[in-house]
């Protein structure tokens, strides 16, 4: 007997599910598979020679070491900040929690190259902000951030939100009565925290740590902006430098490097999955009200300290960026008589590359958001209705292109599209390769919110429409689309937000005429135009914050689990 | 309007049987209740009728059309069956107004604007919803929502109406008035209705015939009176009404009635003669009278006030647990005598 029959409903649905699934698999998983094949096949036959050769080069080994050191210690920094904030926000009676959480999310949404740029503007001898305040170090003294320590610090700040979010979600899922039972038994204050709360949150903390490490490992913007000037290469920047310097002749070699990053990342993802499943086993029972342990007299000092940290990691660098963008030339102090918008004008309206980049990034981001919505909405719904084996496998793998470092996906995309099968055509160097890479990379960003909202939808909504005779198409249009529209909108905004700022993927895939905003900022800074880079970066920060505020304003209309910072 | 014919319909969920060998027929225009404890397969049967599930074995015919045939691997999707379905959760579309919820089936059938308006108004009026047409479902009470769901399935003139525990989410008072709405609806439209419930009072009050289900099988399919007075087996006897089933020690036929030895007393019993020798009797409160001279000595273990009368739970000297009714209050522990009058006897393996 066929599977169709067992699940009931029509065969068209089953066929449609298979069709969309195949498209989705081609878009998301095919590149990853292609990369794997490249690594183990040399000149058409299986071989590990190239792999052995590349892995024994000293540059590879030192880059691997640098990657592990910066990602590992960066994760420790994230852990310290993320844990402190998560425990205090989730467990105590702090005021203005929503505002605090929103501010903590901004570092995650600001692209890493802009984070790096903004921090270099508040340190070092030519910092406009420090000059204005008269505390700049003498000319000739080094930029302290151009160092492994600088990379570690910024990686830590960039990714603390991940730890914060996963740990806070874990803390919120602790049933309140567990804590109350401990207190009834006589456990006080810190003892409750240490002996009940912490053990229960360890799995989510471990999962968060693993995924933070993977994200830090794949980060390109920060080690590129800080490490390349210092001659300190990590695996992603090594791949970039090789490909930028030698072109596609080193494709086989960088594929091996990409696989190396991918292998480390996948082991991190597996660790995360393991702990995530453990956590689900752990916590049964309903999480009723969130905990609010009274801080008493310590509340005001703690609040001041937390907001102070937010100020230092968020507001101060932005001031640095702003100051740099408002002086006529880099290195001058900002005074009333020197303040000017000339760099803003220059970069936003005069530079042809920037104008192109705005068009490209806007088109790519909105195009990817639209394409993903068209694919994900019916797919998520069909996968929810009929859980075939293929659908379940895809469900467990579709996060891969987003979780894997961007460099890995870029190399995979090049391999897949440099020679289109059965033709002489290539997509490498065109805007389409970036578009397809975005669709693959941000698939999960669109799919998961829609899936979350459809899971909460009463299946009877659809069945009711079915029983009155509505066809598949009609139900999708009249029932499913309106009911999941808020989630789809949130997903689309998130895809747009992430793609609009993206650097890692496009850095390896751009060519003249197809540059994105991320690439332009990187190139401007690289060629010494720090002021213009800052002005452009400031513009992007405003766009990001406006879009985040939009999601926040609409968040009441979204189902639970759709807005990533409202778990 | 159509009759429904099931022939050896079965359903397994990943190896576990949920329905086994259901062969039965619901006549055109009948009000059928599927009654049983949770997990008995009644909802699965309803969902097979609707087409949300496909049967693993057997055939299903509604009216002239074959809807599902497991051997041939066919299963007509729900949207092509022209069936009305009323959900326990009402399943009103929250983004559509009451009017749009009701008119949606007509839109799908491509009726003209005027025709849609006319039929929608008629359906709204007949369910007493005319004043609520422009409200959203979230602005309605539970009973009103259920009436919208009813109007929605009435408007498309379905050949059968399936109802999945539609009153389970309503309070007791509303439940009684909605029962009236359903029976009125049935007598007005003459539609074949299949109603799933676990509440036997609900089934007894509304249905022409009740299929009592347990463990994926129909245990007895009969009128409410027959189910109560002439149960076929131990499950039905115990599930319907407050029956206690006790074994019969010996039987002798004397004239018109059978004489049986029950709990040590010799009593006249009724039975269906074609069913062969009887082995058990069903003792309901109305078969038991309290009398000082009663043959059965028993002790009261619990007294429950039922409003105007008391339900006594008693244990006889030989250990059987019996339910009796009385208008006088008795204390727990009181000794009394019971007389059995004409219980129903049946054969049970």
Q: How does this structure look, described?
A:
The complex is a heterodimer of chains A (567) and B (349). Helix content of chain A is 74%, strand content 1%. Chain A contains 27 helices and 2 strands. Chain A has helices at residues 3-7, 11-28, 30-40, 49-56, 58-91, 97-109, 112-120, 128-133, 148-172, 176-184, 189-218, 221-230, 235-246, 251-282, 299-326, 342-350, 352-385, 389-397, 400-403, 406-417, 431-441, 443-455, 459-467, 472-501, 504-509, 517-526, 530-554, and strands at 41-42, 45-46. Chain A has a two-stranded antiparallel ribbon with strand order 1-2. Chain A starts with a helix and ends in a 13-residue tail after the last helix. Residues 1-8 of chain A have low confidence and may be disordered. Chain B has 2 domains: 4-229, P-loop containing nucleotide triphosphate hydrolases (Rossmann fold); 242-346, Beta Barrel (OB fold (Dihydrolipoamide Acetyltransferase, E2P)), CATH 2.40.50.100. Chain B is built from 8 helices and 21 strands. In chain B, the strands form 4 sheets. Chain B has a 6-stranded mixed sheet, with helices on both faces. At the A-B interface, α1, α23 and α24 of A face α2 and α4 of B. Chain B: InterPro entries: AAA+_ATPase, ABC_transporter-like_ATP-bd, ABC_transporter-like_CS, ABC_transpr_MalK/UgpC-like, Mo/tungstate-bd_C_term_dom, P-loop_NTPase, Transp-assoc_OB_typ2.
Instruction: Output the radius of gyration of chain B.
Output: 24 Å
Distance between the termini of chain B: 40 Å
Oligomerization status of the protein chains = heterodimer
The CATH superfamily title of the domain at 8-42 and 356-567 in chain A: MetI-like
Can you tell me the overall shape of chain A? globular
> Beta-sheet strand percentage of chain A?
under 5%
In CATH's first tier, which class of the domain at 8-42 and 356-567 in chain A applies?
A: Mainly Alpha
Number of strands of chain B: 21
Sheet with the most strands of chain A?
A: 2 strands, antiparallel
GO molecular function, one term (chain B): ABC-type transporter activity
Keywords (chain B): ATP-binding, Cell membrane, Membrane, Nucleotide-binding, Translocase, Transport
Protein name (chain B): ABC transporter ATP-binding protein
InterPro entries (chain B): AAA+_ATPase, ABC_transporter-like_ATP-bd, ABC_transporter-like_CS, ABC_transpr_MalK/UgpC-like, Mo/tungstate-bd_C_term_dom, P-loop_NTPase, Transp-assoc_OB_typ2
């Amino acid at each position: 007997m066929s599977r169709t029959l067992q699940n009931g409903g029509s065969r068209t649905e089953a066929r449609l599910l298979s069709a969309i699934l195949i498209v989705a698999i081609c878009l998301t998983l095919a590149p990853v598979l292609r990369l794997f094949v490249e690594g183990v096949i040399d000149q058409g036959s299986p071989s590990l020679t190239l792999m052995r050769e590349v892995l024994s080069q000293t540059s590879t080994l030192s880059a691997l070491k640098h990657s592990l050191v910066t990602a590992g210690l960066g994760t420790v920094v994230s852990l310290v900040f993320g844990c402190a904030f998560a425990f205090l926000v989730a467990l105590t009676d702090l005021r203005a929690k929503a505002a605090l959480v929103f501010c903590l999310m901004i570092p995650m949404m600001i692209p890493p190259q802009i984070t790096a740029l903004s921090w270099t503007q508040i340190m070092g001898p030519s910092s406009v902000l420090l000059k204005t305040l008269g505390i700049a170090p003498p000319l000739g003294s080094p930029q302290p951030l151009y160092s492994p320590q600088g990379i570690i610090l910024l990686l830590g700040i960039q990714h603390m939100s991940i730890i914060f979010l996963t740990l806070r979600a874990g803390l919120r899922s602790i049933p309140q009565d567990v804590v109350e039972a401990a207190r009834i038994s006589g456990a006080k204050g810190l003892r409750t925290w240490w002996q009940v709360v912490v053990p229960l949150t360890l799995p989510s903390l471990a999962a968060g740590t693993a995924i933070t490490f993977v994200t830090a490992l794949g980060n390109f913007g920060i080690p590129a902006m800080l490490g390349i000037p210092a001659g300190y290469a990590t695996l992603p920047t090594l791949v970039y430098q090789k490909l930028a310097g030698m072109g596609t002749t080193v494709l086989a070699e960088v594929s091996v490097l990409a696989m190396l990053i991918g292998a480390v990342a996948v082991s991190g993802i597996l660790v995360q999955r393991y702990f995530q499943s453990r956590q689900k086993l752990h916590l049964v029972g309903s999480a009723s009200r969130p905990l609010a342990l009274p801080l008493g007299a310590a509340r005001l000092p703690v609040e001041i300290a937390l907001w102070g940290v937010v100020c230092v990691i968020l507001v101060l660098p932005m001031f640095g960026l702003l100051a740099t963008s408002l002086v006529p030339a880099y290195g001058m102090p900002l005074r009333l008589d020197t303040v000017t918008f000339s760099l803003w004008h220059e970069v936003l309206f005069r530079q042809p590359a920037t104008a192109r980049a705005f068009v490209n990034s806007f088109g790519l981001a909105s195009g990817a958001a639209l394409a993903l919505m068209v694919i994900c909405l019916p797919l998520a719904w069909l996968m929810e209705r009929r859980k075939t084996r293929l659908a379940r496998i895809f469900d467990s793998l579709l996060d891969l292109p987003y979780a894997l470092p961007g460099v890995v996906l870029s190399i995979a995309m090049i391999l897949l599209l440099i020679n289109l099968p059965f033709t002489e055509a290539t997509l490498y160097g065109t805007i389409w390769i970036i578009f397809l890479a975005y669709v693959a990379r941000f698939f999960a960003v669109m799919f998961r919110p829609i899936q979350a909202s459809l899971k909460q939808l009463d299946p009877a909504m659809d069945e009711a429409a079915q029983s009155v005779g509505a066809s598949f198409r009609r139900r999708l249009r009249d029932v499913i689309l309106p009911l999941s529209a808020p989630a789809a909108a949130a997903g689309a905004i998130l895809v747009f937000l992430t793609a609009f700022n993206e650097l890692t993927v496009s850095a390896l895939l751009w060519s003249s005429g197809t540059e994105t905003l991320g690439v332009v900022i990187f190139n401007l800074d690289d060629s010494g135009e720090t002021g213009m880079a800052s002005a452009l970066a400031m513009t992007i920060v405003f766009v990001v914050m406006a879009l985040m505020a939009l999601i926040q304003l609409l968040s009441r209309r979204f189902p639970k689990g759709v807005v990533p910072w409202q778990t | 309007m159509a009759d429904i014919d099931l022939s050896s319909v079965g359903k397994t969920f990943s190896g576990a049987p949920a329905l086994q060998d259901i062969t039965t027929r619901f006549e055109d225009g009948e009000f059928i209740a599927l009654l049983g404890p949770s997990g008995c397969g009644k909802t699965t049967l309803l969902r097979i009728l609707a087409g949300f599930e496909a049967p693993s074995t057997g055939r299903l015919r509604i009216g002239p059309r074959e809807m599902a045939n497991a051997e041939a691997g066919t299963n007509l999707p729900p949207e092509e069956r022209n069936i009305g379905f009323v959900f326990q959760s009402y399943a009103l579309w929250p983004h559509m107004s009451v009017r749009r919820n009701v008119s949606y089936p007509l839109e799908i059938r491509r009726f003209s604007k005027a025709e849609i308006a006319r039929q929608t108004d008629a359906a709204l009026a007949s369910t007493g919803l005319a004043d609520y047409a422009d409200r959203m479902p979230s602005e309605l009470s539970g009973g009103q929502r259920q009436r919208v769901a009813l109007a929605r399935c009435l408007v498309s003139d379905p050949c059968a109406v399936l109802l999945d525990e539609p009153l389970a989410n309503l309070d007791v008072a509303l439940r009684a008035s909605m029962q009236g709405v359903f029976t009125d609806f049935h007598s007005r439209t003459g539609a074949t209705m299949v109603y799933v419930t676990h509440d036997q009072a609900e089934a007894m009050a509304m249905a022409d015939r009740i299929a009592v289900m347990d463990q994926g099988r129909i245990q007895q399919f009969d009128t409410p009176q027959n189910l109560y007075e002439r149960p076929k087996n131990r499950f039905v006897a115990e599930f319907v009404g407050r029956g206690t089933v006790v074994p019969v020690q010996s039987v002798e036929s004397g004239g018109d009635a059978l004489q049986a030895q029950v709990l040590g007393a010799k009593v006249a019993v009724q039975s269906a003669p074609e069913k062969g020798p009887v082995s058990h009797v069903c003792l309901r409160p109305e078969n038991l009278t309290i009398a000082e001279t009663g043959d059965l000595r028993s002790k009261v273990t619990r007294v429950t006030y039922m409003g105007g009368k008391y339900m006594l739970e008693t244990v006889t000297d030989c250990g059987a647990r019996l339910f009796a009714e009385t208008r006088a209050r008795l204390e727990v522990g009181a000794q009394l005598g019971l007389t059995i009058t004409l219980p129903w006897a049946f054969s049970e393996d």
